[in-house]
Each structure stands twice: as C-alpha cells, then as structure tokens.
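Record type: ASSEMBLY
Status: queued
Input:
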Amino acid sequence: MSRRRTAFFISDRTGITVEKLGRSMLSQFDGIEFNQVTLPFVDSIEKAHSAVNRINQAAMEDGRRAIVFSTLIVADIHNVIEESDALILDLFESFIVPLEDELGIQSSHAVGRPHETGIHYNERMDAVNYALNHDDGGISRELERAQIILVGVSRSGKSPTSLYLALQFGIFAANYPLVPEDFENKSLPAALKPLLPKVQGLTIQPERLAQIRAERMPNSRYASLENCRKEIQQAEALMLSANIPMLDVTTISVEEIATTLLHQTGLKR
Amino acid sequence: MSRRRTAFFISDRTGITVEKLGRSMLSQFDGIEFNQVTLPFVDSIEKAHSAVNRINQAAMEDGRRAIVFSTLIVADIHNVIEESDALILDLFESFIVPLEDELGIQSSHAVGRPHETGIHYNERMDAVNYALNHDDGGISRELERAQIILVGVSRSGKSPTSLYLALQFGIFAANYPLVPEDFENKSLPAALKPLLPKVQGLTIQPERLAQIRAERMPNSRYASLENCRKEIQQAEALMLSANIPMLDVTTISVEEIATTLLHQTGLKR
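Status: finished
Output:
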C-alpha cells in the first residue's frame, strides 16, 4: 500500500507562513511521500467550497484523508473547510482562542489586516533598492548609509544575503567582493576602511565553493579547488588582520546567515 | 494600568516562521501595546535558561506574564521554556502530536533538519543571481531562461518582486522597465517580443507612484503627479495592445504581488 498523502496549505492571504510552517512539520516525518499543495487567497465561501472539492478529491486518489494546514481568520470560511474529510490543523484556531482568554479581549478576526504599516513597507522597498545599487561593490556613493557591509570571495553568498536582509528585515546592506588586487595589497578596498565597524566577513569551505563555482563555470581556473583554496586562505588572512568577524556559511542557508548576522551585530529586525 | 505586554518569538533555528506567525496573531488584538522580542538559535539548555530569565524579567517589568510563541523541536529545550512564568504557544506541540496520531508514526524530533534539499537550495541561489543579472533590463543574454518577465514603469515594484520570486520560490525572474522610447514606438522592447507569453505587467495608481518617486527625487519632473499619470496611461495602453496581463500593485505588498503572479501564471512554487 502506498504511503502517499496529500497535504494542503490554505490561507486567505499569500499562504507563505502556513506553507513554511507546514513543510517544516512534514519534514519531521520520514518515509512518507507528501504531495504538497498550496492554496493561497481562499478569501470567499466559493473558493472555500472549491478547496474542499480538491481536498476530498485528493483523499479519494490517495485512499487516505488529506492533511490541511490552514490559517483562515474568517469563521465562515474556516467552517466550510472544516466540512471536508481531512485532518485540519488551523493556526488561528489553535492560538487565537488561548490568546483571547489570556488578553481578556476578543480578536478582531479581520482578514487582510496589514502585517506592517506603510512606513515600514516603504523602508523595506528602499532597502531593496539600496541593496541592488550596492551589490558587488557597485556605487560607492552613500556607502556610509549601509547598516552592514558584507565582504567575502566571489560566490560566498554575499548578494543573496544582502537582498534577504533588505527584503525581510528592511536592513540597508551593501556587499563588496574581495579580489586578487586586495590580496596583493594585503589591504581592504579603500572605500571600506572608514566603515570598518560595519563590515562582516563571509567565508566558506573550499570544496563547497568549488562546487558552487563549477555549476556556473565548469572546468575553469575560477572554479578549481586549488584556486578556491588559495582565494579563501588569502581572504581569511585579510579579514583576520583587519579584525573583521567571519561567519562560515558552508552548511547554512541564506535565511540562517542573515539571522545570524543580525543576532551577532545587534541590528534590529 | 498599562496594557503593555511582552511577546517572545523563540526558535531553535532562525525564528523567521514563528516571528511571522506570532506577529500576525498579535495584530488581531487592538489596543494592546506589544513589546516584541525574537530569540533565534535557542538550541541548548543554557540558552533556554537564559531565555527563561528574559521572559520572567519582562513579566516583572510589565506586571503581567509574557506571551511566548515558540517552535522548539527538542523536548529538553522546550521543557526548560515551559518552566517560565508565561503563556506558551508552541507550534510543534500543537501540531506534531495530532500529526503523529494521524500518520501512525513518531516524528523524528530532529533539530536543524534542513527544510529543503541541497539541490533546491542551489536552484534558489541560481535564481537570485539570475534576477540580479536580469534586473531593470540588464543583460539580454539568457533572457529566454526566464520563467517570468515583469514589465512596468520605473518604481512600480518590478525589482523587489523579481528578487522575492527568486529568493522565496527559486523562480527565474527578469524585469524590464517601460520607458518613453517604448511609448513613442508604441511597441515593447524588441528583446521581449519573442517571449511575450512570459511577460506580466505591473501597474499602479499615479498618486501612489508619485509618492514613491518623491521619496527618492522630491520636486522632480520624474515624481510629478502629471508625469506619473502620463507614464502609467501610456504603459497601460502598451500592455493592453500587446495583451499583457496587468496587476495593480497599489495596495498590495511584494509578497502578495509575487504570490498572486505565481497563482495566475500557474508557475510552481
């Protein structure tokens, strides 16, 4: 008998949070093949009925009821989903009721309530544009506006981390590559020197770097293990001599790099 | 009496999911000022004890117990947090137990379990580099590799949306500005014509665009309401004549724009 199960992530908004949470829960169960389906913007009774049809259809095909992770604020919509033949794990139901008890007031049960104010949103978008303009050593103008400046060898994860810091947390992040010229001079790029307290280093194990670079430029000197080893050694020596903190990113994701940097620098999310 | 309460978001990993979920829950309660604190990487008994100290300290200062949203997989760490004087809402406890019952197997309770495979992670990073290289009409080479190409006037949200699609979903996204030259020619940029089925338009209300542009270049012609109105009118006419679907982004966040586009195009997350 197949162990295949279908899991739905259902939200009246984007579904990003419930999908992340649901995937992380399911990853705790080995040996079961989960067919994962996200249904965002389920914000009307009609869409809820159509979701129920899909849920019941999947149960028929799998020969087992589906698992539904949901975050549905409006009771009427939630009630429709409850009619399906599935295990329903609803974030709001699980948490809003104990919160109402604790706080002694009713929740507003307001769908589409903005999660952030307009001002904060504009700041995040400004931060994204800043990160784009100050990616890979581009535009020295306004470099002093950066809250953090990442350095490291090419493909050590500086760009994705800068963009993630901007998009997720509204942090003004610039990044600068360390290149052979810096190693010869045994000195940081001149633009960075007055901003040293903001500089954070990323480093990576040579084997992993060679693998990443080879995907882009197979069989190149750039991607060779020997060259990667040399560049990393020189970059680490440079960072060490300039007292720049270093984070080894070999086994961690961009989300973890970004969060670790915030944590270490004390920058506010 | 002050209604101030402290809420903690505690995770053994980055805390991003639990923070998002917690903030969204708290936003359902009007009239209470929440002091919100994220404690990521609580992955040892020592760190758990130090978190408990902070939780109890906050309760003393507020004169009410704190609220803790947590996602702690390791039972020993979770148990330490349970000793605090707080309302604990734990994601794993609320969902893992019913899942174990439903699936008939034990969860692995493994901390730091990667949420995605290495291959998927590499794809996301490739997508970020692609979005960086194909931002704002940069590099036409490999444009056909794009899964989606966003067009719209300057500052309509194309860049943040492309980057979010890449970072969050591993989608290869390019973006192209629509500029006065295109309007004069009454024609899309030549590079886009063979790729029309991948093109999606963003549009925005002139008042909002003028506001966004004024933050960057106050009192400029670029930011004037008159100019914004004209550009948007011309851009919409061009998109309409080329049969490009248009999304009005005036009141929605970059997360919502990205999710809506995926939903409309059927691109897989």
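Annotation: The CA atoms of residues 40 and 227 of chain B lie 46 Å apart.
Annotation: The domain at 118-265 of chain B is CATH 3.40.50 (Rossmann fold).
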